[in-house]
Amino acid sequence: MKKIVLALAATTLFSSAFAQTFENSSSGEITFSGEVTTAACSMTSENVPLYSYTVRDLAGATATGEWGQGSIRFINCDLGTGNDAISSVDVSFAKSTGVGTNNRFWSNQGTATNVGVEIQVAGAPLLPATADAPINVALQATGSTLLVQGRTVKLSADDATPGTVKQALRFNAVYK
């Protein structure tokens, strides 16, 4: 009986520790995923951190956060020979409806309001409406990297509300 009471007390203690509101806490997410394929290269992708900001940090009408950086890496490539040789990969992203000025930002899939996500790939803006245009990456047998960046942006003069900021992009890689 003592074990049951002790377990219940511990559960109550830990549950109340995680029940805080957004005003008094920060949160994050790490995604773990993988895949087994017959593709010419092994591929890894890193999550791009958007960091944590207070409503006060995003007070200006055009406030932005810092750029977070990740990458899509193609490693251990079998470039082949002759007619089966490959030398590059075209990476394209799923299109979306943009938000903000000229629809150039990606919508927030999290819970914070009046914010979006600005994304760059290889140093150039990735616009939601044209994200499916292929970005060509030259392949090396030892590996090649495509730089991906993102940042939180305020969408209007209205206040941002507390919550999460998130954008998940699907992409496709076609070896050539």
UniProtKB/TrEMBL annotation:
Species of the source: Ignatzschineria rhizosphaerae
Source taxon at top rank: Bacteria
Protein name as annotated: Fimbrial-type adhesion domain-containing protein
InterPro entries registered for this protein in UniProt: Adhesion_dom_fimbrial_sf, Adhesion_dom_sf, Bact_Fimbrial_Adh_Pro
Gene3D superfamilies: Fimbrial-type adhesion domain
UniProt keyword terms in alphabetical order: Signal
Signal sequence extent: 1-19
